[in-house]
Sequence to fold (188 residues):
Amino acid sequence: MTLLITGLVLFFGAHLAPTAQGLRDGLVEKIGLNPYKLAFSLASLAGLVLICMGVSAFRGTPADIHLWSPPLWTRHLAFALMLFAFVSIVSAYIPSHIRDRARHPMLLAIKIWAAAHLLANGDLLALLLFGSFLAFAVFDRISVKRRALAPQAPAQGYAGDAAAVLIGVALWAATLFWLHGLAGVPLL
Fold:
């Protein structure tokens, strides 16, 4: 559990710096923009690695206690919700009406992903991992409203929407049938 919590603290600690505009600006002023970006990237990557190692080490141990028993239908609901999460995450990178409507599709995707997994799992590992990501995504979405971020150019036409949906569906299907199993948790 220590690896998981250390990874979460490191990952979210790095991601909290941009939410405090004064802290971020002070760091950029002190060390420069590129060193700041490098430090942010390295801390985020190290956090993700520790999270993955922590999940692997914690899953199935006696410490990963069973907190509740989700009904079977929540698993099916999670599969459906994840389709929206994949389309949303893809739309974060493709100019589309989906991106324009969601405003912050990456955060929306994280919230859907975390909520779907919390619905379908009832163990301490799920609560720590997905609960912390959901809490952070809600906090960050609120903080984004307070920060002045550069507006993105609005979508022109519907090609971006079609691409976001097609790529999102393909990634969802690949994850459902293959990729999730590579992480040691086959879904089907």
Summary: Residues 33-58 form the longest helix (26 residues).
